[in-house]
Amino acid sequence: MTQPTYIQGEHLPTALSLAASGVPVLPLRAGKVPFANCRDCTGNACGGRPNMKTPGPCQCPGVCHAWAAATTDPRTLASPAWVRAWRRAAAVAYHPGGASVTVVDLDDAAAVDWARATLPATRTVTTTRGEHWIYRGTMPSSNAVRPGVDIKSLVAYARWLGSGTGSAAPLPDAVRALAVKNPPATRRAPQRLSVPLRGHGGECPHRVPTYLERGIAMAVQRISEARSAVHATVYRTFLAVLSTHGRCGCLTDAHIGRLFTAAQAKGESPRHCTDAWTNALTTLGL
User: Fold this and answer.
1) How far apart are alpha carbons 46 and 41 in whole angstroms?
2) Distance between CA atoms of 235 and 116, rounded to whole angstroms?
3) Are 188 and 132 in contact (CB under 8 A)?
4) pLDDT per 10-residue tile (average), the chain, 286 residues
5) The model's pTM
6) SS3 string of the chain?
7) What's the pLDDT tens digit per position in 261-273?
8) pLDDT tens by residue, 153-182
C-alpha cells in the first residue's frame, strides 16, 4: 500500500505494519493518553464502543474511543480523520486483548525483580522505567494489582515499544491470580454504596474537617501532576481517598466531583472515572 506523502514521522507506517499482522492499533497523544471524543461523541452520546467487549471504530470517522477505536483496517488507519490524529500523535498504541495477548506492565526496577523471581519467562519489551512482559492469552485488565504492576489485556490499551525479545509464553495462572481481589480476613461489614459514593453530610468522626479538605486537595494535585500512567494514578488516588474516608460518610458529591473533574482534565473519560471508582470500592469491600 502506498503511503500518503504528507504523513510525517513513523507512526502510521508502524501502525499499518502492526495492523497487517493482526494487531489492532490506535494513536496516542503526548502523555500516553488517547484522543478525546469528538463533538458528536462527547460523553459517548453516540452509544460508542467502550461499552462493548471487542475493538473497532465507532460509526463516526474519528479516533474517538480509546482502546475501542483500535483497528486493523488499513483504510480506517489512513483515512483523513485518522491522518489528522497521526500528525498529532506522540506514539502508537494497541489493544492487547484484540491481539490475543496480555501485557504485565512492570513500572519500576522493583516490579521487574519481582516478576523475574515469580513469573514464567516470556517475551519482554523494555519501557522507559521498567518492562512489559507479554503472554499469549487474554484476561480482564486490572490496575495496581501489586506495587508497580498493572495488567493490560481486554478493554485496555498499551503503548507499542517494539516486538521485544524472547517468545511469548502461555498466560500463566500466576498472572490470572493477580487480578483476583481477595477480601481481607477481617473487616467492617461492607456498606452497600452506589457509584459515585454518596456522602452522609456529616463530618469524619476520626478527623477534623480540614483534614478531609487537605486530603481532597492533595488528591486533586496528585492527579493533575501525573505525567505518565494516568489511568493507574487516578485509580490509586481514588483508592487512597476511599481507604481513608470511604467508610465514615464524610465524602460528598462535591468532593467526588472534584476528583472526577481533575481526572477528566488529564484525558480520562467519565466512564474511565466511574470504572476506577467502582474498582476502588470493590477492592476495599465498600
Assistant:
1) 5
2) 26
3) no
4) 43 94 93 82 67 64 85 92 91 94 95 94 95 95 89 92 94 89 42 43 57 84 84 86 77 82 85 79 72
5) 0.63
6) CCCCCCCCCCHHHHHHHHHHCCCCEEEEECCCEECCCCHHHHHHCCCCHHHCCCCCCCCCCCCCCHHHHCECCHHHHCCHHHHHHHHHCCEEEECCHHHCEEEEEECCHHHHHHHHHHCCCCEEEECCCCEEEEEECCCECEEEEECCEEEEEEECCEECCCCCECCCEECCHHHHHHCCCCCCCCCCCCCCCCCCCCCCCCCCCCCCHHHHHHHHHHHHHHHHCCCCCHHHHHHHHHHHHHHHHCCCCCCCHHHHHHHHHHHHHCCCCHHHHHHHHHHHHHHHCC
7) 888 888 888 777 8
8) 988 899 999 999 999 999 999 999 888 765
- Residue found under cell 506522540: 90
